[in-house]
């Protein structure tokens, strides 16, 4: 294939891989932000994760009101959500790709993955990650595999529309997850296979509990059971009551002492909300029947599917035509509306509800949508609306090289010596969501229905102890002329709400920016970026840029400009800004390698911070710019347990510094 020929040439010339800096392969040249689909896109035959398709942004809506007011008050605001955790938005990693994303085995772990998780931990205190998906249903825990790998796929045995291969895995996968949690505070969800509910394979629950201990926070009981009939996994008469019967079978099967704890970690019904409604399950008495066993209730949903393009199933959807439907506030609301009754109902049952698997579209997402800046804005608005609507968390799905929607993608295995990771828009959503909610576990979210409910300018207030601390503003419009830049006037307290004027003297603002909703890669969050395809080691690069805006305290107003397009996070108080997620970040020396010839010792004198709140204030600790190594104090840990961290070494740039809490 033409796209790989360049690599053969470079390797063939004997240029050592560590000296090669190839960020773009033929056909994947840098893309213009607002241009039409680049010439190479139409004939592109490479992996979906690097598809160069760039769509056209939708036209500027007309009329469009770009100036509006927000009146906030301290205490007593009606309609705020239940208290939320900063780890609200986590990730769902398809089980069959866990060995590409997490590491090769328990002793060879991917440094970029650790850095990506550490960024979020720094802001939220922890990260919730599920390893599962369709592949969990037929997964088999085995002692070992013939070639020593921790996962083996049987591609020929694929049995449903997403072509998920049956797989076997070894306890090493669980050890790898446990080892990751010793570096970064990642908490894990797993799933009990439900393909055969007369002979449950409980290995993953039993060994998972033994190895992961407190880091195991939930076990799915079935994945999308409402689609079992459609996919030929159950007889056509199968319904919610049959599912409940299977859960009773499971509890019987889990009655041994080794299951005492994990019997209370169950998560159901995990319906895709395709062929059943949540109420169909609630009305069986599901939550009352299993109340003691349910750690959470959960649903899964994608707003659309691209199964035609990927597998020839369903109806063709043209990404250019579909794109605008992602770029307004109704996109998230249309997913969530069908669950509003459920989030109210589960509150009456003292349960919390998760959106367990979601992303822009099932069957891999859409080229040009799922990997665009628009998807980052969509992800933020959707997730903030989930929080406002009393969900308690959401997990964005991560697939392999063959999907468009990945929050992060490791390079193809045979390119890992010269390519780095590709960070997608949804990762920016997760990072910023962590920062928006913070680590207190007590933030409450309110959709302000601002600008008379204008769907292009959704705006949220975030409360702590009843008082507004941050404001999140989305501008979905792309308009390089500047005419659609917002000017949002925020007032806190004042005569409008019968309170003392409480507008701060100044506020700080961080922006998520790109030239267009169509742009791929190089988005900036407060001036820092994860770059374009194959360009990230999981740390933000560049100098942080925070905007300070002076407010008019006499007239009780702070005026916040928000470019078209952008997301803005306004910090109303110094505490809201400098609030630390908990433990300080530390780094430690380690050895990084992908191939023995690339083995280097990582310079310990690097502290990767200036991320999150802790790095912003007076104790700015160091630079994260590529290649810039600043002396930094701080704790340094040696790496025990014989763990090797896997990272790319490119030229003189030493990568693989790890942020540790
Ligand atoms: C991202 O920015 C880098 C550095 O400026 C540049 O080399 C690259 O072409 C850009 N990539 C995209 C996809 O715009
Ligand atoms: C796609 O390939 C065909 C045949 O090689 C060529 O004629 C056409 O110009 C290519 N299209 C684009 C957009 O590159
Ligand atoms: C882990 O993977 C590395 C790299 O492939 C290999 O050298 C090592 O032997 C593996 N460790 C185990 C315990 O299989
Ligand atoms: C369930 O999956 C296992 C492992 O893939 C397989 O051996 C078994 O035949 C399946 N059982 C049913 C009833 O489909
Ligand atoms: C809300 O859910 C409950 C529990 O399933 C159900 O009894 C009720 O009918 C639902 N209400 C609406 C309006 O759907
Ligand atoms: C979320 O729950 C709170 C507390 O029960 C309630 O006041 C609020 O109306 C709910 N929000 C939505 C959108 O259902
Ligand atoms: C990497 O593997 C793919 C799939 O097996 C193959 O097509 C490609 O040529 C390989 N590339 C390199 C640089 O070895
Ligand atoms: C937030 O909640 C999690 C459990 O969900 C807990 O582990 C953590 O300690 C809490 N953080 C704070 C600051 O209370
Ligand atoms: C910092 O961000 C602001 C707001 O986007 C921008 O106007 C300014 O040019 C940026 N400064 C630097 C040094 O990038
Ligand atoms: C990583 O996992 C292995 C088991 O495969 C274990 O021997 C080792 O101690 C673990 N390392 C750490 C740092 O937990």
UniProtKB/TrEMBL annotation:
Residues 1-19 form the signal peptide. Residues 460-569 form the Beta-glucuronidase C-terminal domain. The chain crosses the membrane at residues 639-660. InterPro entries: GH (IPR017853), GH79_Enzymes (IPR052974), GlcAase_C (IPR031728). It comes from the Eukaryota. Keywords: Membrane, Signal, Transmembrane, Transmembrane helix. The lineage of its organism: Eukaryota, Fungi, Dikarya, Basidiomycota, Agaricomycotina. This is Beta-glucuronidase.
